[in-house]
Amino acid sequence: MAVMELFPVVSIILLYAVVVIKSTFENDGNLEALLNHVLWEPTTSNSPTTEEDKVVPYFDETSSHSNVTVQIGANVDLHCKVNRLNDKTVSWVRRAGDKMQLLSFGHHVYSTDQRYELLFKDPNDWQLRISYLNERDGGHYECQVSTHPPIAFTVYLAIIVPQLEITDERGVQVKDKFYYVGSTIELKCYITKVPQPSQFIVWRHETTSLNYDTSRGGISVKTDILTNGAKSRLFIANAQTSDSGKYTCSLTDIASTSVTVHVLNGETPAAMQHGGSNRCGRLHSLWVIITFAWILFRLS
Fold this sequence. Notes:
Layout: H1 2-28, H2 31-39, E1 58-59, E2 65-71, E3 76-78, E4 82-83, E5 90-96, E6 99-105, E7 108-109, E8 116-121, E9 125-130, E10 139-145, E11 151-160, E12 163-167, E13 176-180, E14 185-192, E15 201-205, E16 208-209, E17 219-226, E18 229-236, E19 245-251, E20 255-264, H3 270-299
Parallel strand pairs: 2-11, 13-20
Antiparallel strand pairs: 1-4, 3-9, 5-6, 5-10, 6-7, 8-9, 10-11, 12-14, 14-18, 15-16, 15-19, 17-18, 19-20
């Protein structure tokens, strides 16, 4: 009977305690944490302990791909910035259709091509460097992170090959050019499709560089940098027969084009002589045929 009499009092005390405790922890936001601590054991060390640990790696880019354009023969660094890498690994691969070539894994390069190099720049930039680019280096490269499934950032590398053309003083493209002794040789070299027009342009006569040739004298090279390339002009005053030969305009060792110069000492160019002889021969043969046909007609 005494227990039954105490029951309402105990119930009121317990209810008050629950209300007070609940109000206290709800106010400071720690009620759920307290209940978890009382009702569950702490997690093992292999499980994530914070919300930040649960965040997967991601690329520090606004899109999942990038386009890079570089001139042939240059070096290029392909960038891949990865945030929250944690214990994952970064790899560079080259993709050609369904085929993939592993270039690097972690901090190691796995390609036998010595032109590939892996660079890491703090805090998160995994760079793939390719030196002395050639046309075959163009294509898709992927920076992959070893999540499940893997995530990838794609870089498309475009290789630009410069185009060179030699013209005469009238702007007409030539492969053979005739001059007379004492005249001025004037050749123009146009270079287009050059993302880096500051590259050095060299004129050569056979194997002799003309840009700084002081032994011949009377040689002038003037180069103008244009928006998408350059124009270089070669002047040789008082041309001599020794100035005949092949002239080459080159963009360092990347690309070149040539023209053959003939300096004549008053004679008619051989090509024109051959052309005239051929025309005369054809006319003579035609006249013989017509004459022979007319004689046969009169005799019939």
